Amino acid sequence: MRDLGSLIIVHLVEPMAVGKMFPRHRANWPLHVTLVPWFYIADEQRHKMLEALQTYLSTEQPFSVHVGEEKKFGPDKNVPVNLIDEQEPVRRLHNALVKVTGDYGAQFHKGASAHSGAEQTYVAHITHHQAADGLHRRFPGEEEAFDSITVARLLDDHGLQMCEIIRTITFGGKGNEATA
Q1: pLDDT in tens, 72-94
Q2: Per-residue pLDDT tens for 34-81?
Q3: Domain residue spans in the chain?
Q4: SS3 content of the chain, % helix, strand, coil (to 5)
Q5: Does the 2-177 domain belong in CATH 3.40.50.2020?
Q6: Strand residue runs (E) in the chain
Q7: Which residues, 6 or more positions from 165, have their beta carbon under 8 angstroms from its beta carbon?
Q8: What is the C-alpha separation between 126 and 179, in angstroms, rounded?
């Protein structure tokens, strides 16, 4: 598989092990909150950026938020999500992660935006996931603990784009890095 040099940073509501791979299509993602959308970063900057993320998160404390109302996102308003009721702590985390990635030259994919800074257009939400065993989703009022972030990379497998979990970094702790 060929590494395409692109990463995404999420909070996994349904955790996955480092090294786990799955097709990129949103239907294959576990429940998650996107913290930094897909971006390209040069190979020589990737390790430095991951270490900087780990350093930043080593001083952060976990926090909890409540799952809010259901909405439809996407260009056709057909992607079911639940908003996060307490946007501010997630927005602060998002802005900090966007700054760290930007410090190492992150270039966001066409059509993607970091939604940070003065715009404040970032809206934290949990995207629902239709799996073989049924709909995976959260419900209004449920609590979600943010105690880690997960970084995935984009790979090409003979024309099929795949995601691979390459690192999970816990708040106040260490990261687990893929050996691949």
Answers
A1: 988 889 888 999 999 999 999 99
A2: 999 899 999 899 999 999 999 999 999 999 999 999 999 888 898 889
A3: 2-177
A4: 20, 45, 35
A5: no
A6: 2-12, 21-23, 32-40, 63-73, 79-84, 107-108, 125-127, 129-131, 134-136, 143-146, 148-157, 160-170, 175-177
A7: 16, 17, 18, 19, 20, 21, 150, 151, 152, 178
A8: 29
